[in-house]
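Deliverable D4.2, example record:
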Amino acid sequence: MKHYVLAVDLGGTNLRVAAVDDAGKILHIARKPTPRSGDGKAIVNSIFSLADECRNELKNDGRPIAAGTAIPATLDLKLGKILRAPNLPELDGFELVREVAGVLELPVVLENDATSAAIGENWLGASRTVDSSVCITLGTGVGGGIIIDSKPLRGLDGTAGEVGHLCVEPLGVECGCGSNGCLEQYSSASAVVRMVKEGLPLHKDSTLHSVAPLTALDVYKAGKTGDVLAHEVFAKMGYYLGIAMAGLINVLNPEMVVLGGGLSSGWDLFIDRVRKQVATRAFAEPARRARIVRAELGDYAGLIGAARIALEVGRT
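Output generated by the structure prediction step:
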């Protein structure tokens, strides 16, 4: 009988569980809105029900050997515990590995969602041909995952890769992490919306005055039609992203920087500013060497990465 793993993508809005084989092929995927009852056990029960759907779908084709869970949170990987989950505060301090392992009766491993995306891209996506890469996810916030010598860099406390909280403007916008001027406040989808709203009074002719509720996708579409404010905001977003990226290239000397997440779809409106800042601020040879590319796995990168780490646990 064939083996597969269960990959869990636990977000603040949606929850997905996929059955994935050892080649990274998704055999079945189940999804539902993430329960927001304020009770971590409700989330565990939802993971169980979706995993059960996967098991039933594949009951004649194989069995799961482990599960991997990706979540946007700071984690204690040794204890399998969530330290802080900004979008799921009911999970703060929650021992997710113990709880999920209990209901699934499988070995379970936990990973930060951005690190999981980096693992997925390095296994089957954009960075599969290199050993050292940085993956930056541009979504509601900004996440990061670092691969060095084909291994994820997690750090002593498991918090390595928090690219979104690199300071790019010391006296800048206050961040939810408690600092000021973090990259997340300038190069995320939520930052793009905020910066547009701040700029509307100075751009009376912007088409974005008539858009409500405003999203980063709306800003991108306006930019494609020549809206000046939209172009200015994406230029600013790329400027700060380039500053952060130059620092990462100087410190880590990666072969590749992968940009993923929903906001990366605005690539053509910001990438020139990114590359200009990298060329200006990073050491010349590492800057020339580091390829800046778009992610290839899209919304599945985190799931694929979670599957990868589950396979490693299941094989031991």
